[in-house]
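subagent[fold] <- orchestrator: predict structure for attached chain, return tokens only, no commentary.
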Amino acid sequence: RPAPPRHAAAHPALPLRAASFTSRGDYRLAGLFQMHAPAPRAAARPLVDGCDDAATFKSHSYSLAQAMRFAVEEINNSSALLPNVTLGYDIHDTCLEPASLHATLRALARQGRQEVEVLPTFRHYEPEAVVAIRPDSTQLALTTVAVLSIFLIPEVSAAPPADEEKGSRGVTV
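subagent[fold] -> orchestrator:
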């Protein structure tokens, strides 16, 4: 078995990953939840880090992601709600701005593709996600809002921006 390329070993936290949780459906929702806080980093470390440091796990955001999964499953299991339609989801951990931007771009990719294509008109544009549940971090939400608004993708905030000083948290739609 050949050894991995030297550059891959030098940056083990840089691979572009798919969604943390995925479920196929006729219409997909993109959930962008900050399930890990940004880890303190030294200046010598690369800007893009992985979102898998157990020490920075945020249970509140993980609970919001699980609530989204539960809601989609309940809707799909009901014959009275959205008959003959199946909802799907892609849930991403947006621990840092680069991870948030990557998740946002994945939501914008056309169905069955990996790249974001800018078309001359939005009438024929069919992104992977039809709505995005955006991050509850103000900094991460600004990037998501700026990109998704160009493509006319509706956004819902699962929680108001976290106010670290007051500790306020809640779910709003």
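orchestrator: received. Logging for downstream: The CA atoms of residues 108 and 127 lie 5 Å apart. The longest helix spans residues 59-77.
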